Amino acid sequence: MRKTTTVVRIILILFVGFAIASILYLTRPRPKQLSHTDLGQLVTVMPAWLSPTTITVEGFGTVRAKTEVTEIAEVSGRITLMSPKLEEGMFFKKGDLLLEIDPRSYALAVKRTQARIQQLKADLLRIDQENKNKESDLELASEELELAAKEWDRYINLGVTKVASEAVVESVERKYLQSKTQKQAIENALAVLVYQKAAAEAQLSIARVELEDAKLNLSKTRIFVTFDGRTAKKLVEERQFVSVGTPLVQIYDISAVEVTVQLPLEDVTLIGLIAPLRAQKEALNSDDISVESLPAAIAYLDTGENESTWKGSVSRVGGVLDKATRTIAVVVVFPEPWASTETDQSPPLVPGTFVRVKIFGKRMDNVFELSRSVIRPDNTVYIAENGLLRIRPVQISHTVENNAYVNKGIQPGELIITSPLSAVTEGMKIRTVMDERAIKYFQEQLSRLPVGIIILLMLFKIVGFI
Questions:
Q1: Which of the four, 232, 334, 403, 412, has the lowest number of CB atoms within 10 Å?
Q2: 152 shares a domain with 282
Q3: Beta partners for 97?
Q4: Residue 124 located in a structural domain
Q5: Do 99 and 249 meet the contact criterion of CB atoms below 8 Å apart?
Q6: What is the pLDDT at residue 57?
Q7: Is residue 329 predicted with pLDDT exceeding 70?
């Protein structure tokens, strides 16, 4: 009996629950039917604002000394003196003596040539004195010949020969001929002295040239430096015998270094290097040697803890385009490699260092900086205008990393669509929301305003003026 009663109760509960559920379902409120309205695709936008910029290009290169010299022995001999400054890495000043090759044999050559010059000078003095003596002898011989000629004429013209003995006549004639012969001999000797003097003078000139050469060789035994520099590599040792042409030491000037950066030709044009090159070429045909200044540059070296920088400028542009890379060499000079713009702990810009170089070109004021992602493949951008999408062709002046700079096709304040869109049509409906980058930019600009202006803007926002 109890079991039957329990089953009946369960059936009644199920029936009541079903009845209540049916009533709720039948009395439920009906939702209102709403008509579908196309509000357009939601896109993010950011306003376009002018972004004045200086065009820069970057490249990498290895530092090398602007002036690097390998001193070579110009005379042979044993090295008798070597400066401690020849050790690798040591510094030296202009005019310092680096090393000396045994000078004794070269000093003796100078003295020997000087003695030869003195001998030749003495020979010239002897010739001059002999010439004076011969001229005096010639004068006496001329007088003696004149007297002998007169005496001979008197014998011939007056007929003295008819009354004088034959021996006397022969004696007068012999005296005349002897005087004539003596004069002729003196004249011949004087003529020979002229050639002897010319030969002695030529020998003296040769000896003087040899003296200059000997002095030059003597000076080459001592190696001096002509600039403030540093030793790169020592190639010989003291007491070593060296021959002509033997490399002695490699040194370089520490006042300036160079970095060669390989750049595409379009980058060379972009930073304004073509105009200075043409000015330099035109200066060859005129007296005006002033040319347009070349761009400035900065070298960057990451030392781990910080990044050291050095200021420099473009020095010259290579004359040949590299066939493999289609780039051209741009040489940048850094005049103070030991003067980094960072702390004293920064390393010097020594040869062999691999650095990043940024070259600064011309300044552009009327350009818009956009992310390269908003530039479509056909060089167009999407503009949001009164809830519609507009497709606008633009002109890109240049690109730097992930940014593109547009100088035509956009007006200040226009809303650039930054959302990635796959299928668009001109004039399609859109809904806009501000891009996070634009919001961040406005927040940064607002943070720079005085506190009073910020409070005033907040009041205007509250009362509904903005």
A1: 412
A2: no
A3: 224
A4: yes
A5: yes
A6: 86
A7: yes
Q: What is the mean pLDDT of residues 322-349?
A: 80
What is the model's pLDDT at position 222?
95
142 and 214 in a single domain? The answer is yes
- 356 — alpha (psi -120 to 50), left (phi > 0) or beta? beta
The pLDDT of residue 418: 87
What's the average model confidence in pLDDT over 40-65? 87
Judge whether residue 361 has pLDDT over 70. Answer: yes
Q: Name the β-bridge partners of 151.
A: none
CATH of the domain at 377: 2.40.420
> What CATH number is given to the structural domain containing 322?
2.40.30.170
Between strands 41-47 and 430-434, the pairing is: parallel
In terms of domains, do 277 and 403 share one? Answer: no
CATH code of the domain covering residue 139: 1.10.287
Give the chain's domain count: 4
Q: What is the pLDDT of residue 120?
A: 92
Residue-range definition of the domain harbouring residue 160: 105-219
Residue 185 lies in a domain: yes
Q: Is residue 18 over pLDDT 50? A: yes
